[in-house]
Design brief:
The protein is of the alpha/beta class. It is about 35% helix and about 25% strand. α3 packs parallel to α5 and α5 runs parallel beside α6. The chain is globular, with a radius of gyration of 17 Å. The protein binds adenosine-5'-diphosphate (2 copies). One adenosine-5'-diphosphate binds next to α1.
Length: about 220
Amino acid sequence: TPVIALAGVTKSYPGGVTALRDVDLTVGHGELIAIVGPSGSGKSTMLNLIGTLDRPSSGTVHIDGHDIARLTDRRLSALRARRIGFVFQSFHLAPGRDAIANVSDGLLYTGVPKKDRDRIAETALVRVGLGDRLRHRPHQLSGGERQRVAVARAVAGDPAVLLADEPTGNLDSAAGAGVMDLLRELNAAGTTVLVITHDHEIAGSLPRQVPMRDGRVI
Ligand code: ADP
Ligand code: ADP
């Protein structure tokens, strides 16, 4: 089974905006894909549906073989915590917490026992190249390093899917390239990765592009 399958998905928001229209998308295990399109084309809406943060107005969304409309909110939260990692443009790190604590906090709902969280967080930080930044707090880190902490947090629980929404949007080009290299490495090690971007150069550097416009995959 594919890790992600959207079939005939339409999403309308209260107020009447239809953000997605009849979208089909199938993503296999181990893919690395770019969802690319201009602002307002429906990329974030699609990521929210794939991330199980929202439900479609019509059509079906399957994640890991589960029809998300058929799961209770509780089971949907469990699926999200264990199987999906999120990375955002603005990092979303807790300001007063060091790198280990930020990553460890991300494991709270994944089923990893408390006694193991700091050790797993440390392993994830070493994996993203931050073994010498474990006790640094976000304000002591560069933008690229902050995003690496966020990536470590997203993958520490070994999710099936990593969803990255404009992960290089707040970084200079060198730091952005470093983060993209990191996402490629994680994908090569087996994680399915979806990157949202409006940057055609970044999209073109990935093996598969899903171009969007006006709520449709084109
Ligand atoms: P993108 O990520 O490509 O910029 P979005 O999915 O954010 O696109 O937005 C698609 C359309 O849906 C836009 O017209 C946007 O204004 C609208 N939209 C997005 N989120 C909401 C929301 N929560 N409520 C109402 N309209 C929304
Ligand atoms: P139960 O826990 O008894 O199965 P739920 O209230 O969790 O019942 O869900 C009943 C049905 O409503 C399910 O099919 C579920 O997919 C759907 N459902 C639950 N919450 C939402 C929601 N926020 N939006 C759309 N459908 C929902």
